[in-house]
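Example 3.2
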Amino acid sequence: MAPFDGSVVLVTGASSGIGAALAREFARRGADVTLAARREDRLAAVAREVEALGRRALVVACDVTRDGDCERAVAAAVERFGRLDAAVANAGFGVSGRFDELTLADYRRQLETNVFDVLRTMYAALPELRKTRGRLGIIGSVSGVVPLPITSAYSTSKFAVRGLALAVRDELKDQGVSVTLIEPGFVASEIRRIDNLGRLRENAREPIPSWLLLGTDRAARQIADAVARRRREVVLTLHGKLGAWAYRHFPWLVHAVAARAIGERRSRSFRPGDPPRAKP
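Structure, written as tokens:
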């Protein structure tokens, strides 16, 4: 039987982008899916897509920055479907800006959403995953391997996620639970249109050329494959793999190229429209 056929999967951040695509992909592979995120209207639309693929969907309003919400999502999944076979910690966003323009509040906000959301998902899901010898997928980023100018907050969070995932993987192996870290490069999603306060800017332009963006459905297929095979660490996109390789062997060159490419014109943010904030 295929790894996800007849299984139950929880996806956080499932209202859009990679999370929504993952929900559809797991459904195509025969899984019932619990969809967790803050935007219930969007989750309802994704749930209809899952059901159109012949699988059951459960919508759970969940704020991963709030203690107890992930436990409630897991409990709802088990109550509805009777078990949990896999969970993917996908929720997150990116704070950007020069270090001397950011505040401690920016770093706290970034770590709360990108690091503690993973911890909350892991602690909530593990008791059930131990029962099923299940799978845990953690969405990191190439920014957790390659730190670049004006991404110090985001890179800090993703370096932490990488360390967490790789360390915990070995701890959980004897319990039958696999941990797979996925590190995407540029994927076609809303993340670069979300400002430093976590608000979606509907009219903000996508700063990355379309030819460099990996489609969310293709990303979801690769992520599902990695989780199914219980891989340790997978980098998505050709540019992500090249960047990780180059940084490992020629870090000085990567930093020189990045500094030149980003320049002062992008020193504030990748996301236009983010209003300046007063320093404390």
